[in-house]
Amino acid sequence: MPRTSLVGAGLSVVFLAAISITRSGAEPVLKGAEAFGDWQRDKPGTVRLITPQDLPKPGATASSSKFPRVMPRPASAAPQVPAGFKVELFASGLSGPRIIRTAPNGDIYVVETGSGRIRILRSAEGATRPATNEVYATGLNQPFGIAFFPSGDNPQWLYVANTDSVVRFAYRNGDLKASGKPETIVARLPPGYGHSTRDIVFTTDDKRMLVSVGSAGNAGEGLGRPPKGIEAWSRDHALGAAWGDETDRAAVLAFDPDGKNQKLFATGIRNCVGLAIQPGSGTPWCSTNERDGRGDNLVPDYVTRVREGAFYGWPWYYIGGNEDPAHAGARPDLKDKVTVPDVLLQAHSASLGLTFYTGSSFPPEYRGDAFAAEHGSWNRSKRTGYKVIRIRLKDGVPTGEYEDFVTGFVIGDNEVWGRPVGVTVARDGALLVSEDGNGTIWRVSRD
């Protein structure tokens, strides 16, 4: 595959890497055991379909611990994209870029979680790299999700989901610096130990604010029983709601835009890292990390529509009525009440940021599909993830299939140079991808 080389370093440099990948017709859909692969089988255009019937029994393989070594990006390394697309280095030198979002005026907001700040990248019309790089706000507490409110072309607020709160900044289109101190909207979210990321979106009618909160532990360790018993707890709380240290966790929470009237919107979602609202239908979606320690191919991560009042299984069940062995016999009342997620992903892929393609520069069949960033495995003997996938929809409904779209972040069995986190659609229709291994953002466009 021909690749051009870097001509410099830093934010001002563009790496043009038009990747030529030959495809003789459509790729077959990998199903069943064939769908369980590793990084060596990943390539743009590979399509997988994993169903609940394909899952192995618990303990079919041992649980592995194989953390990657994150290396500097080799000079010859670049992401790979399907034929007909090209990938360019949009920005570098960033400090652990996580979620990225496109403002209504086209500015790219980059959340540097570990540094507690938000950065703005602005490109001139037709440019493929940022001409402006400004820090918008600092002093935040592990920020992750951001959202503009109200919807439309003229938002008045920028909301930020810290690990322990939701705050907002007064906002006007074109702001490069926060105009003042943030206003606290939700003073206390469940504490940031365990899973610390919080994403945030607004429903299309602007009446509700949704915030995702991951579990404190892996699979409800030490959860025990509620003080007054399961029956009393279930009568007084939402379906599948957990208690103790897991209260209001492994869930999507709903609030009014002013932070009032907190409710559980959906439960049993171990770690909904990425939240997104599907254009047209207004349906909330989650990009979800499932539990570890159950073997190479359990439990599948997933991307799914989120139905209000639904329970997705954690920690007692997974992918329908499959009982977690660690909770055998604990909640028979929930077995037939578990909502099965829409799109099952290779277990331990670590699915993070999520966006829907709303641009017009990609081929028509991409419009309305979703893209999710797979941060990559540590709990699998053969490495998986480390890519961006396309979630295929038909008439707005997920087919269950997903396709490798951006790959090439892995150097070898033990080393990687990139860990994708955020995805957003730029105003010109390009797809932007952040990765926090080397602090870069990549731009995918038509060749």
Question: What can you see in these coordinates?
Answer:
The protein starts with 15 loop residues before the first strand and ends with a strand. The strands form 8 sheets. It has a 6-stranded mixed beta sheet, with no helix packed on it. The chain is an all-beta fold and 447 residues long. The protein has 1 helix and 31 strands. InterPro entries: 6-blade_b-propeller_TolB-like, Beta-prop_PDH, Quinoprot_gluc/sorb_DH_b-prop. This is Sorbosone dehydrogenase family protein. Pfam families: TrAA12.
Mean pLDDT: 93
Shape: globular
Count of DSSP strands: 31
Characterize the biggest β-sheet: 6 strands, mixed
Task: Tell me the Rg in angstroms.
Answer: 21 Å
Helices, by number, come to: 1
In short:
2% of the residues lie in helices and 33% in strands. With 447 residues, it is mostly beta strands.
